From TrEMBL:
The keyword Membrane does not apply. It comes from Limnochorda pilosa. It is an enzyme of class 2 (transferase). This is protein acetyllysine N-acetyltransferase. The active site is at H119 (proton acceptor).
Length: 250
């Protein structure tokens, strides 16, 4: 359990504002959203092989079944205490940026706004040909091969999840905003990310180089643990609720 002094001093730093937050899969597991590691046993291929542009072309039935399962899981998911606490921090004017590696939209469902979604969003699909977006439920349509994928209502092109697949570049605007926030924040707070996926994993390093202290709330080790001023290996909801309570925001 985190020492009260650790939470007290972190709450004091958080209360000064100017905080950039990066959230990962561990922020949403309490909402019942499995991460890729825990869900890989459900599929013949590893998600990092299946969830790629090549996987979409080579194994369309399995690719779309994989993302249809994610759509169904998200339809049942609700924001947890971590999402709610972060939304309250933002509403209190304490956050300079809320950056997420997640694609589940649970920060917005909790009331957060202007979320920097590094890996896109499962809130809609995108046409490979014309770029227009559609409802995520289009991914629930049954697929029977490469020429039977969900089709764009406007141009007939193939629809895909509006997320960054493995091997694709991050959205340029989102990445630029995230790095600017890391370089200018007063405190960088990592919540539920093991910081293994580049380039998001380098954001804490940017903040440290700029002189901001680092706080890591994650159950598993990260490459930045030795450089973190606060290291809390506890569930995100528990830690953030404790911080919100100390700030009078619970």
């Amino acid at each position: 359990m985190a020492a009260p002094d650790d939470l007290d001093s972190l709450a004091e730093a958080l209360g000064r504002g100017g905080v950039a937050v990066l959230t990962g899969a561990g922020c949403s597991t309490e909402s019942g959203i499995p991460d890729y590691r825990s869900s890989q046993g459900l599929w013949k291929r590893h998600p990092q092989e299946l969830g790629t542009p090549h996987g979409m072309e080579a194994w369309p039935e399995e690719f779309y079944a994989f993302y249809a399962a994610r759509v169904r899981a998200l339809q049942e998911a609700r924001p947890n205490q971590a999402h709610l606490a972060l939304a309250r921090f933002q509403q209190a004017g304490l956050l300079a940026a809320l950056i997420t590696q997640n694609v589940d939209g649970l920060h917005q469902a909790a009331g957060a706004q202007d979320v920097i979604e590094l890996h896109g969003s499962m809130a809609h699909t995108r046409c490979q040909r014309c770029g227009r977006k559609d409802r995520p439920e289009r991914l629930l349509e049954e697929v029977h091969g490469l020429h039977d994928r969900p089709a764009c209502r406007h141009c007939g092109g193939p629809l895909r999840p509006d997320v960054v697949l493995f091997g694709e570049l991050l959205p340029e605007e989102a990445a630029e905003r995230a790095f600017r926030a890391a370089e200018s924040c007063r405190l960088f707070l990592v919540v539920g990310s093991s910081l293994q996926v580049a380039p998001a994993a380098s954001l804490p390093g940017q903040a440290l180089l700029a002189g901001a202290p680092l706080a890591v709330v994650n159950l598993d080790p990260t490459p930045y643990d030795d450089q973190a001023r606060w290291l809390l290996r506890e569930p995100a909801g528990q830690v953030l609720t404790g911080l919100a309570r100390r700030l009078g925001l619970a």
